Amino acid sequence: MTDLNLSDAEKSYIVDGVKLGIRVDGRGRLDYRQLEIETGVVSTANGSARVRLDRTDVLVTVKMEIERPLPDQPENGRIHFFVNCSANATPEFEGRGGDDLATSLSAMMERVYSSPHTLDRSKLCVVKGKHVRGLYIDIEILECGGNLFDAISLGVKTALWATKMPKLYVTGEDGGELEFSVSDNPHDIDRIDVSNAPILITHLRITENLTVVDPTPEEECCGPVRVVVSVTPQGFITATQQFGSGTFNPQTLTASLKSARDLGQKIHNRLLRKLQQEEQMSDRQVKGFL
Amino acid sequence: MEIQLACELPRVQNMVHVQGSAKPRLVTPGEVIYQDTSFMRGHGTYMEEGVQVASVAGYVTRVNRLITVTPLRQVYQGAVGDTIVGRITQVQTNRWKVDVNSRLDAELRLSNIQLPGGEQRRSNLEDERGMRGLLREGDLVCVEVQKISDDGLLRLAARSIKYGKLSQGTLLAVSPSLIVQDKQRMHDLPCGARVVFGANGYVYITPTVPQEQASTYTVNFEEVPVDIRKTIGRLRNCIKLLAIHSIMISPTSVTSAFDMSVEQEYEIKDLLKPDVMQDVAMATVQMLNE
């Protein structure tokens, strides 16, 4: 993902470490780094979140629009994902350099959220067949410190949790066109139900039969192939995708899926607890970027 | 995975409490240093309308009548005689290009390295063909700055047994201004690892090797045992936490931080958590001031 080019000696040090069960920074194979989350960092968006995982830094904003539904899904709201890889993250994202990564990230997110079991999009309906809410989810990658997929999915879930959409009322009809009024009371809002929203768990294959989670950029250099698993809070796997050139042993793959499921459920629980805790804070100051 | 809210995390605190000495004066670019015009203008300053103004953010240092501003963060400029760590980026005819954390990639000529076998052997065509066998892209080298050409390009040399390719271990990049100036750059720390404090901010941690086995261009791929890995991992995390809290990195400070973290019985992976990092950093500063 980044232009790191490790020497054979460093690679063998990393690979041997994974074999012995101790990674370069002292973590075990299934240990995550500490995640830092904050909601409400962008005041102009309906919902926003910033997620940091060591040096990985992702900003997610959710904005709402009223738009026409797709003809085949007249009562489903629409969700659009846009990923932007900032050239501040690594110089190679400059120009069109980050486009491939951005496309694969946004395609993965779109796939994960397309299932009706993850997010009930009929709740975003305003007038069936005519007007639905569209959510524009912008993901800005500010810094790359490895494990982008997991960080982004956590960021999206956090931002959706924090999204507050003003309630819409149909006030009248004028020549076939409906008129709306948007509530300007800050407490008269709709929230999004994220109780089923999935997160992604990445397993990177470092060496034969051994995978690690939450890889650093150096580790990503050593393992070309990874499997990204989307897990819901109930422990359902809703999507999997393999990235990179390489193969997984069937046993390794099953083990990875199982451990992703267990890890995913734990992370979901912790995330929800933390988000509730943050919401209950009465005078929370937004730390933001300073 | 542990999740923390951004508002719960400790703010990075000012930890410099040097007793007995006056607090150093910090200036920002454009700030007037002294109204008095009798001082001499040094690095990091310029004259504007008869007064001396800082051109970088940093500490004011005064030697007799000469005023300089030492920047807090800077791109590595290079100085003749510095021992630095670099990564080979290109193999060209007769020379290697080396990434040294500077503005330009440095240059290491084939004639400036000690070839295997001969003491004072001249390099021939055969050596030129086998350059990639000595050092290839991605390899880490420990070298000395021999000369700085007019355009700022660093010319490197490795004409001694102590320089050459680095074996298994892990690299950490910190700000070059945090590395303490020292004659000796390679240290066998008492905790049982060898640390190369490159003047350019690249710090390399490897297992200690017996002197007679140290050969310049071959790498030992033998598996590093777990206890040495633990030491290296702890050292890595300690150096990282010192860098995050802007504490000067020297063998003394690294050893104190290491001992401190062992004494307080933190696990290696605990040292990745911001609150633990701050604890250890504070304790280290206190220990250094005593």
Features:
heterodimer; A: 290 residues; alpha+beta; Ribosomal Protein S5, domain 2; 6-stranded mixed sheet; 4-stranded antiparallel sheet; B: 290 residues; OB fold (Dihydrolipoamide Acetyltransferase, E2P); 4-stranded mixed sheet; 18 strands
Low-confidence stretches of chain B: none
**What value does the average pLDDT of chain A take?**
89
Radius of gyration of chain B (Å)? 22 Å
Number of domains of chain A: 1
> What portion of residues of chain A belong to β-strands?
25-35%
**Structure annotation, total helices of chain B:** 5
What fold name goes in the CATH topology slot of chain A?
A: Ribosomal Protein S5, domain 2
Task: Provide the residue-averaged pLDDT of chain B.
Answer: 85
In the CATH hierarchy, the architecture of chain A is: 2-Layer Sandwich
H and E order of chain B: EEEEEEEEEEEHHEEEEEEEHHH
User: CATH H-level name of chain A... which superfamily?
Assistant: GHMP Kinase, N-terminal domain
CATH class of chain A: Alpha Beta
Query: What is the CATH architecture descriptor of the domain at 26-71 in chain B?
Result: Beta Barrel
Strand tally of chain A, please? 14
Quaternary structure classification: heterodimer
- Largest β-sheet summary of chain B: 5 strands, mixed, barrel
Helix proportion of residues of chain B, in percent? 10-25%
> Which pair has the most extensive contact?
A-B, 45 and 40 residues
> Regions of chain A with pLDDT < 50 over 5+ consecutive residues?
none
The 3D shape of chain B can be described as flat
Q: How widely separated are the two ends of chain B? A: 37 Å
Pfam family, one (chain B): KH_6
GO molecular function (chain B): RNA binding
Subcellular location (chain B): Nucleus
Keywords (chain B): Exosome, RNA-binding
Could you give the topology of this structure?
The complex is a heterodimer of chains A (290) and B (290).
Chain A: H1 8-20, E1 35-39, E2 47-53, E3 56-67, E4 78-85, H2 99-114, E5 125-127, E6 131-143, H3 148-162, E7 164-166, E8 168-174, E9 177-182, E10 189-191, E11 199-207, E12 210-213, H4 217-222, E13 226-231, E14 237-243, H5 250-280
Parallel strand pairs in A: 4-6
Antiparallel strand pairs in A: 1-2, 2-3, 3-6, 5-6, 7-10, 8-9, 11-12, 11-13, 13-14
Chain B: E1 3-5, E2 26-27, E3 32-34, E4 40-41, E5 45-48, E6 51-54, E7 58-63, E8 66-71, E9 83-91, E10 95-99, E11 106-113, H1 125-129, H2 131-134, E12 140-148, E13 154-158, E14 164-165, E15 170-173, E16 186-189, E17 193-197, E18 202-207, H3 226-244, H4 251-263, H5 274-289
Parallel strand pairs in B: 4-8, 11-13
Antiparallel strand pairs in B: 2-7, 3-6, 5-6, 7-8, 9-10, 9-12, 10-11, 12-13, 12-14, 15-18, 16-17, 17-18
Subcellular location (chain B): Nucleus
InterPro entries (chain B): Exosome_cplx_N_dom (IPR025721), Exosome_RNA_bind1/RRP40/RRP4 (IPR026699), KH_dom_type_1 (IPR004088), KH_dom_type_1_sf (IPR036612), NA-bd_OB-fold (IPR012340), S1_domain (IPR003029), S1_RRP4 (IPR048565)
Family (chain B): Belongs to the RRP4 family.
